[in-house]
Amino acid sequence: MAKKIGITVPIVKQIYLENEVHFASKRFDRLEEKKLHQATLAGLIHGDFMQQNACTYEEYLRITEGLSKSPAQTKEAYRRMVFNVIGKNCDDHIKNFSFLMDEQGEWCLSPAYDLLYSFGSVTYGEHKMSINGKNSDIMVNDLAQCGYSVGLEKRFMKQTIEEISDIFADLPAQLKGTNISTDIQNEMLKNIEPLSIREFPERKK
Q1: Which CATH number fits domain 28-191: 1.10.1070, 1.20.1330, 1.10.260, 2.120.10?
Q2: Which contacts of 142-145 are long-range, i.e. CB under 8 A and separated by 24 or more positions?
Q3: What is the pTM of this model?
Q4: What is the pLDDT of residues 41-70, one digit of tens each?
């Protein structure tokens, strides 16, 4: 689902062994025989990933902008934020965001990982990083003000929110044929709600 809306993800596959299913992900900190330098957001800010709001999403976007010096990378970071919000991934702590540096010293976002539905008793339905000062009940205005803080355009943000909402609106069809239990599927369908946009918010002065 993330790949469909422009989020870079690693190569993954399921491995079936007798009555077990294993999830395998190709390492993205290797380029053929060479190692790529990887730094988590937690490592960069010397933060405690167990602490809520050790970093905000606004700070994450600014760090992405400053390291990569690439508007495209900042936009992808924004997409990841919106995906986490609409998809109810509340396990969005600072070790679940990483950056890679190549031999020329150029930084970019690592492929996204741990993009999982996580809205139950463990997270209490609260995101680990705040958006517009909020950890829950994140609305379109909060996503807009966060994007405005790093200079993102209204048109891009509106399109991003609509595209990701459309992906999750099709969730019932996408869950068919998966190994996800019926109980978890029902919980996901109950809690994941696409965001609707009547009029996109303006930047607050």
Answers
A1: 1.10.1070
A2: 143/81, 143/82, 143/85, 143/195, 144/200, 144/201, 144/203, 145/201, 145/203, 145/204
A3: 0.92
A4: 999 999 999 999 999 999 999 999 999 999
